[in-house]
Amino acid sequence: MSFWPWYGLRGGQQTESWEASVPAGASPGRPVAAARQDADQFSMICPTQALRAQAGRVEVEMDHCVHCQRCRQGADPLPWQEDAAWSHWRDTHAQPFPARFRRSLHVLYVDAGACGACVNEIRLVDAPVYNLHRFGIFITATPRDADVLLVSGPITDAMHRAVVKAYAAMPEPKRVLGMGVCAINGGVFGKSFASHGGLEGVIPVDLWIPGCPPPPLAIIEGLRRLMGWTNGPAEREVR
Ligand code: SF4
Ligand code: SF4
């Protein structure tokens, strides 16, 4: 007999909660803006210019943060926040799916040259702890069945054509979700002889999830945002 029924009955529900606050340790956290007297000097510790000094504050541009943790160390670090709401719309024209998609969504994931960490997080969203299926979201292997194209990596030359062809093969309506700082702007790889440096200019993007890599709960939050579940007026801000 399999151990799993026994384990499930003994342990009860193990799935991470969603609507409630994010359980401690489920998110690596992210730096948040703060007022500082040493804003000019402090912002210079960031290797990717994700920190910017402005009017006595340190502002954070998550689209450039590679989670190196430098701003989290030392005697006077920047505050960090553990949450799952990391995604933001590409521009003001980007829209969630029509309401009929709120209980069913199929996602095609394409690794366009990711380092492996983004791929690992994607593997986890489908695992029992994060339980993507409870929201009616499923990973599909074919663009013909896909509503969402989820892409990570800096779009290497080897994968450029595959990304374009996968997008073209998807039925309307479709949405594109760029995952990780590499998909946004190339991240630590940047633009090079072998990499396009992100999805911009390759296919139209609707939503970005920053992070390096974004954790499973942030990926799920992005997908739910595309479904129209988390899309209040305050959340329509485009960074
Ligand atoms: S974690 Fe690193 S990359 Fe991100 S804002 Fe802090 S110093 Fe910059
Ligand atoms: S965003 Fe970070 S974790 Fe994801 S592929 Fe790029 S380097 Fe790897």
Write the layout of secondary structure elements.
Layout: H1 4-11, E1 30-31, E2 34-35, H2 39-42, E3 51-54, E4 57-60, E5 80-81, E6 88-89, E7 105-111, H3 117-125, E8 137-140, E9 148-152, H4 157-169, E10 175-179, H5 180-185, E11 207-209, H6 216-227
Parallel strand pairs: 7-8, 7-9, 9-10, 10-11
Antiparallel strand pairs: 1-5, 2-4, 3-4, 6-11
Helix pairs in contact: 3-6
Bound molecules: iron/sulfur cluster (2 copies).
Which runs of at least 5 residues are low in confidence (pLDDT < 50)? none
Tally of alpha and pi helices: 6
Order of helices and strands: HEEHEEEEEHEEHEHEH
At the fold tier of CATH, the topology name of the largest domain is Rossmann fold
Bound molecules: iron/sulfur cluster
**By helix and strand content, what is the structural category?**
alpha/beta
- Please name the CATH architecture of the largest domain: 3-Layer(aba) Sandwich
Shape: globular
The biggest sheet, with number of strands, parallel, antiparallel or mixed sense and barrel status, is: 6 strands, mixed
Assign a percent range to the helix content: 10-25%
Q: Which whole number gives the mean pLDDT?
A: 89
**E-strand count:** 11
Number of domains: 2
Textual characterization of the structure:
With 239 residues, the chain is an alpha/beta fold. It has 2 domains: 30-81, Alpha-Beta Plaits; 88-236, Rossmann fold (3-Layer(aba) Sandwich). Helices cover 22% and strands 17% of the residues. The chain contains 6 helices and 11 strands. The strands form 3 sheets. It has a 6-stranded mixed sheet with strand order 6-11-10-9-7-8, with helices on both faces. Helix 3 links the parallel strand 7 (105-111) and strand 8. The model has no long low-confidence stretch (mean pLDDT 89). One iron/sulfur cluster binds next to loops.
